[in-house]
Design a protein that fits this description.
Blueprint (H helix, E strand, L loop, with lengths): L2 H31 L10 H31 L6 H27 L7 H48 L1
Helix pairs in contact: 1-2, 2-3, 3-4
Length: 163
């Protein structure tokens, strides 16, 4: 991975992380302040809590991606240490999907006249879980690459002994 690519990705990660922290602070401020009137059409407090936690899952994933980019830059990504970050990313994505399903459940009673919205929201939750499965497949590819790297190192060691 080139230096320009790493810098560009890190700039994007910093922008997204800064934006999520800003939104999270605003949501906490609205939650604590209780400044807007709650007319009962939507349960705003649970939705705000879920949003704050959901943003937290994205932030955890962003930090892990930063760590993985650092490992790529150093050439150490094909090691067992990378699995920890990939596993945390998978967990964060699953947690985000669960948060989305909670939002869907909170929103469903208001959609009795139009249940298609709830079905679409449920489909989005399934798609989020699909992303977790894709990352899981990528984790398996990483495991194969690490195993091949270990095997290559062993073969190189044996070759060095022969020579």
């Amino acid at each position: 991975m080139g230096k320009l690519t790493v810098r560009a990705l890190r700039a994007v990660l910093v922008l997204v992380l800064t934006g999520t922290v800003f939104v999270q602070v605003l949501m906490v401020w609205a939650l604590v302040g209780g400044s807007d009137p709650e007319d009962g059409s939507l349960p705003l407090t649970p939705l705000r809590v879920i949003t704050i936690l959901g943003i937290g899952t994205a932030q955890v994933a962003l930090v892990c991606i930063w760590r993985l980019v650092t490992m790529v830059r150093r050439g150490t990504v094909f090691s067992h240490a990378a699995f920890r970050y990939v596993d945390i990313i998978i967990g964060a994505i699953v947690a985000a999907a669960l948060m989305w399903f909670a939002v869907t459940a909170l929103n469903a009673p208001g959609q009795r006249d139009d249940p298609g919205v709830t079905l679409i929201m449920g489909g989005i939750g399934v798609a989020i879980l699909g992303v977790a499965l894709i990352v899981l497949v990528l984790r398996m590819l990483l495991a194969q690459a690490v195993a091949r790297d270990v095997e290559a190192a062993q073969m190189q060691a044996e070759l060095d002994e022969v020579i």
